[in-house]
Write a structure and sequence with these properties.
By secondary structure, the protein is mostly helical. It folds into 2 domains: 25-100, no CATH class; 103-211, no CATH class. It has 9 helices and 2 strands; from the N terminus they run H-H-H-E-E-H-H-H-H-H-H. It has helices at residues 25-34, 51-66, 70-73, 102-119, 124-138, 148-164, 166-169, 174-191, 201-205; strands at residues 76-83, 92-100. Strands 1-2 form a two-stranded antiparallel ribbon. Strand 1 (76-83) and strand 2 form a beta hairpin. The radius of gyration is 21 Å and the shape is elongated.
């Protein structure tokens, strides 16, 4: 996944001294557009009048977002639960929640396993086994846009490269440059080639240890994905 530009995308506005979760979407959207600020893509609103309709809508959206690619939907989507009033001014946001794409969650698991491979001196076999097991568990209800074997192949290429270059792997800064690393591995897979140290030389040369996140992720926390 590569973002087209570095910017801040606005999506919600909160009153400085307000008591509401955030302003209604139509108010936020109008104000953001008024000042010419970049805004996230907003999907058409879905309406429901009872619990059964709400559950069906949530099921539909959960499946749709889960199966999108990260190129289409990046991390995923934010849902706004809005209660309409008799007038627009009486409309309010009741709550928000996140829906994440399966690809994003799979690659988050891969990042977690790669960082721990280096930091904890773990084996490729053990991390690959854990990655496959957790990915299968993650995909019980829905399937990602690509076959699971594709993600396992990407993982294998990444694990084997880092296992062969552990010291240099510490300089890749996977905490905050994982996407750059992942895109290089995916390009190698598309070419049918094994990742080489030269492919990552620019990342190694520009490594800044002060800007990197912790080397270790807690693999025991299965819900943080």
């Amino acid at each position: 996944m590569a973002y087209p530009q570095i910017t801040i995308l606005f999506y919600a506005l909160v009153d400085l001294r307000g008591y509401r979760t955030c302003n209604p979407l139509f108010k936020a959207e109008d104000l953001i557009n008024k000042h010419g600020l970049p805004i996230v893509k907003i999907a058409p609103r879905k309406e429901c009048s009872n619990r059964k309709e709400l559950i069906e809508i949530l099921k539909e959206l959960s499946k749709e977002v889960a199966q999108n690619t990260i190129e289409e939907d990046a991390e995923g989507s934010v849902l706004y639960f809005e209660r309409k009033g008799e007038t627009p001014d009486q409309t309010e946001i009741l709550s928000l929640c996140k829906l994440k794409t399966l690809e994003y969650r799979i690659y988050r698991k891969l990042r977690e396993k790669l960082k721990n491979l280096i930091a904890k001196e773990l084996t490729v076999e053990k991390q690959m086994e854990n990655f496959k097991k957790e990915t299968h568990q993650l995909c019980k209800e829905y399937l990602p846009p690509r076959p699971l074997d594709y993600y396992f192949k990407i993982a294998k290429l990444a694990f084997e490269f880092l296992d062969s270059h552990r010291e240099d792997g510490r300089k890749l800064g996977l905490g905050n440059r994982f996407l750059q690393f992942l895109n290089i591995v995916r390009e190698c897979e598309a070419k049918g080639a094994q990742p080489k140290l030269a492919d990552f030389q620019q990342m190694i040369d520009t490594y800044n240890p002060l800007s990197d996140e912790s080397d270790v992720d807690d693999e025991g926390d299965k819900n943080k994905e």
